[in-house]
Amino acid sequence: MTNSREQWEQQFNSSSLRDSSFKTMSGIPLDPVYGPSDGEFPGIYPYTRGPYASMYRSKIWTMRMFAGFGTADDTNKRFKDIISSGGDGLSTAFDMPTLLGLDSDDKMSLGEVGRCGVAIDSIEDMLDLYRDIDLSKITTSMTINSPAAVMLAMFVAQAESNGIPRSRLGGTLQNDILKEYQAQKEFVFPPRQGMRLVRDTIAFTSAEMPKWHSISISGYHIREAGSTAAEELAFTLANGFAYVELAKQAGLDVDAFAPRLSFFFNAHIDFFEEIAKYRAARRIWARWMNLHYGSINEKSQQLKFHTQTAGVSLTAQQPEVNIVRTTIEALAGVLGGTQSLHTNSMDEALALPSQRAARIALRTQQVIAHETNVAHVADPLGGSWYIEELTDEMEKRAEQIFAEIMEMGSGSMLDGCINGIEENWFQGKIADSAYELERTFNSGQRIVVGVNRFQEGNDEDDLAILRITNEDELKQRRRLESVRASRDTGKIDVVLARLEAEASDPTINLMPTLIDASNNRATIGEMMKAMGNVFGRHVEVPTI
Amino acid sequence: MALRVLVAKVGLDGHDRGVKIVARLLRDAGIEVIYTGLFQTPETVAAAAIDEDVDVIGLSMLSGAHMTLAPLVVESLRARNANIPVVVGGIVPNQDIVLLQELGIAAVLGPGAPASEVVETIRKAALFT
Questions:
Q1: What are the structural domain ranges in chain B?
Q2: Distance, in angstroms, between A472 CA and closest chain B CA?
Q3: pTM, rounded to two decimals
């Protein structure tokens, strides 16, 4: 029986490294990881210290910057700027109509087109969005949930029309519908119908897109909506378990799809608590996948995650100070072993980021990666009495919450999550935690620099912010009109009728027909409507 | 009689942390609060405000659609001969505040506004009727 250090060494020695030696600035040679021989190691179950033995010595995290505004053409330009500035992954932000599966000329879309992200109506926009970007080399993430299956279909259709087969496409679809009902609230169909589409995308990608991450199980929005760190951790992993149960129920082998599940966490301002959260997340996932879900492939047990710094921690007052907050939060993500990172821009409590602000945010990551040497040693805080205790505490609190959710589902995490949504349980917990935190700001118990203390300088000059004009909305509507005018409407009618018929048969996977509809230039609104005729709509009971 | 306030999310923006916090803040300050829920249109907000006979409407906006949607709420109220003041809260750039006021918005609350300022602004707005 080898001890854990020997197991780690074996794995580390077979990893490729980005440099031959790693030293401090003054020349002290550094080990890849520190700790007692019988302790935990990165790359070794339960992966508390990291999913890989060599961590950032093999590869620095992916600097994946989230961007999207205006028309596809506008966003394509921003993407190219990110790539030429050294960003190595793309992440697409869609506008509100797209997130809700509406066309830009829908009555409800008024005033929202291209505001919060890029407007996508049909494959024509998708082609513009990724024009002259080599999708076989650069991975892309699409932050969309209710119409995730439609967006994946359009993405596959546009890539294949450019000659890149689906099997070569690498990237991530957020596709985490459960947290939409719980926190982000961009929902369309009722929960069980929403989950049917998730099942279809998991089944489709695990069969045909081996490089694609079918879901990014996201705590980010749960935290932004107001949860505590422990609730973010527990709700997110519970949702993850629910997707595992869903796919297993659909007859998929756990080790066929679980390696392609990825996670997305918030990096809030409480530095050590965040690091403990990431460490606990890896340990919990590994144990549950092993003990409860019967995975034997270690890749199914290794939790990999994207991090975004906390938008909600940013202040409109003295926005330059947000660079400091973001730096601290980004460092927590890195010391916690994130696989990719988005750093927020200083102006995001005011508007969508300007190009200058977005570039500074990327530079922040580059400073951490290349100047500070913090990436030389894996899990550098492992073994700290404080961090280890906090990690255990996070795990304990998460387990308590899992037990509550399981009870709501009579032993099923899948049913527990859905029932908890329908009973407003998650929504209530999140709103309670948000309000409790708010009271500490209002009482002055928690200080926010520039907001409830240290306000000198708040009235200084405004930053130059990005303005989205109504012009973009008009441009997008005209474009949609011309796409509609140039289509074969007979073909569209046939494919949409087929989509609707297939939607009413839960044994059918809708992805092939959605791809077909995309190729025929059906719009997102048309495809969502065809499915909605069968699925109906989710309505949340408003509670304060 | 206690002040009655309708808090609303208009348009497609699902960010409801702010609106729920404001609703609770107002309630804790002794104000009666009615929350519309998500995805309202300017017309449904105006109709609900009249039905509920509220003194003030609070619109929570984060998605950048405030310049389009907030004035439409005011217009919808006017079309129904209702004179209910509208307060906007959320991510609103400074240069838009004056424009919104010119278009009939009673007041704008920016990010980080303390509870006392939120309550005070709502009470003051109610006096404009």
A1: 4-127
A2: 13
A3: 0.96
Helices A524-535 and A191-208, packing angle to 10 deg: 120
Overall domain count for chain A:
1
Q: For residue range B85-118, list pLDDT tens digits in order.
A: 999 999 888 889 999 999 999 999 999 899 999 9
The structure tokens 């049913």 sit at A415
d(CA B11, CA B34): 18
The answer to whether A353 touches A330, Cβ cutoff 8 Å, is no
Residues A148 and A16: their CA atoms lie apart, in Å, by: 35
Classify A330 as helix, strand or coil.
helix
* A28, A34, A36, A37: CA torsion to nearest 10: -100
What is the DSSP annotation of A386-412? HHHHHHHHHHHHHHHHHHHHHHHTTT-
Q: Rounded to the nearest 5 degrees, what angle is found at the Cα of A116, between the Cα atoms of A115 and A121? A: 75
> In this complex, which of B27, B64, B68 lies closest to A110 when CB atoms are compared?
B68
A280: domain CATH number is 3.20.20.240
Q: Which residue in this structure is represented by tokens 């992200």?
A: A117
Distance between CA atoms of residues A525 and B102, nearest Å:
35
Residue range B4-127 in CATH 3.90.1150.10 = no
Which ipTM value was assigned to this complex?
0.94
* Best residue in B7, B13, B20, B94 for a mutation probing chain A (most A CBs within 10 Å): B20
Q: Which residues span the domain enclosing A110?
A: 62-442
Q: Do B24 and A435 touch (CB under 8 A)?
A: yes
**What tens digit of pLDDT does each residue of A369-404 get?**
999 999 999 999 999 999 999 999 999 999 999 999
Mean pLDDT of A520-524: 98
Instruction: List chain B residues with CB under 8 Å of A187.
Output: 14
